[in-house]
């Protein structure tokens, strides 16, 4: 079974996808981490983030390894684990330069499909998983939330990680990313293309239960564990 979860930053899709994968005992593919890793590689190389050709060169020269478990996606660039290092505000701001370059997107789409072919069944999240990368997915979700609520979530995550950040900067960065990224999942907003869930006032546990309820409708009886079975 292939389950895709797309949507904007701060909508809760990463946490929901990770918890859903753990619940279903499926590998979890965090595609955003792949873009972040290339952004960090570009920063370390000292390239001009506005130089698309240089970004593409770095993307082609960087060895990107992804390990997908049911509760995590570990990412290595050139043999070095950067799974935590890519979660800073600086990398957040650099990632949009990488993600908006179609040549890099094409490169990562191909890599994600290779990973998906190896995994078989998995939960994947990002911006274009149900629309571009895995259009044949069994279940497609789009998670949405108010910009202010999403910015608050991301701000709290950064503080929890010990990162210096301020809410206004986080909100500004998020809105700018929305303007660059929204076209990636736009096709999924058409009726019948994906299941849309507004997470603005939902706990992550409630979001996961909503995802499970929809998946259970198409899954074989008994294949999706209930909360009691998980306990």
Quick summary of this structure?
The protein has a single domain, classed as 3-Layer(aba) Sandwich (Rossmann fold).
CATH topology name, in short, is Rossmann fold
**Average pLDDT:** 91
How many alpha or pi helices? 10
What is the percent of helical residues?
Answer: 40-55%
Structural class: alpha/beta
Low-confidence stretches: none
Provide the succession of SSEs: EHEHHEEEHHEHEHHEHH
Query: What is the domain tally?
Result: 1
Percent in strands: 15-25%
Overview of the structural elements:
By secondary structure, the chain is α/β, with parallel strands linked by helices. It has one domain: Rossmann fold, CATH 3.40.50. It starts with a strand and ends with a helix. The model has no long low-confidence stretch (mean pLDDT 91).
């Amino acid at each position: 079974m292939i389950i895709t979860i797309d949507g904007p930053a701060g909508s809760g899709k990463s946490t929901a996808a990770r918890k859903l994968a753990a619940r279903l005992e499926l590998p979890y593919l965090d595609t955003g981490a792949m873009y972040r890793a290339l952004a960090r590689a570009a920063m370390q190389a000292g390239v001009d983030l506005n130089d698309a050709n240089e970004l593409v060169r770095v993307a082609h020269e960087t060895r990107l390894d992804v390990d997908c478990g049911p509760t995590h996606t570990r990412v290595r660039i050139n043999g070095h684990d950067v799974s935590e290092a890519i979660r800073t505000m600086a990398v957040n701001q650099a990632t949009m330069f990488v993600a908006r370059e179609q040549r890099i997107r094409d490169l990562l789409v191909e890599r994600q499909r290779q990973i998906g072919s190896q995994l078989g069944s998995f939960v994947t999240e990002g911006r274009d998983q149900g629309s571009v990368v895995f259009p044949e997915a069994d279940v497609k979700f789009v998670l949405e939330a108010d910009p202010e609520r999403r910015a608050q979530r991301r701000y709290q995550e950064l503080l929890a990680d010990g990162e210096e950040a301020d809410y206004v900067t986080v909100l500004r960065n998020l809105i700018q990313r929305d303007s660059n990224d929204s076209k990636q999942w736009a096709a999924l907003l058409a009726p019948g293309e994906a299941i849309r869930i507004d997470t603005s006032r939902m706990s992550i546990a409630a979001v996961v239960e909503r995802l499970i309820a929809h998946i259970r409708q198409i899954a074989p009886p008994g294949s999706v564990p209930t909360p009691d079975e998980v306990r």
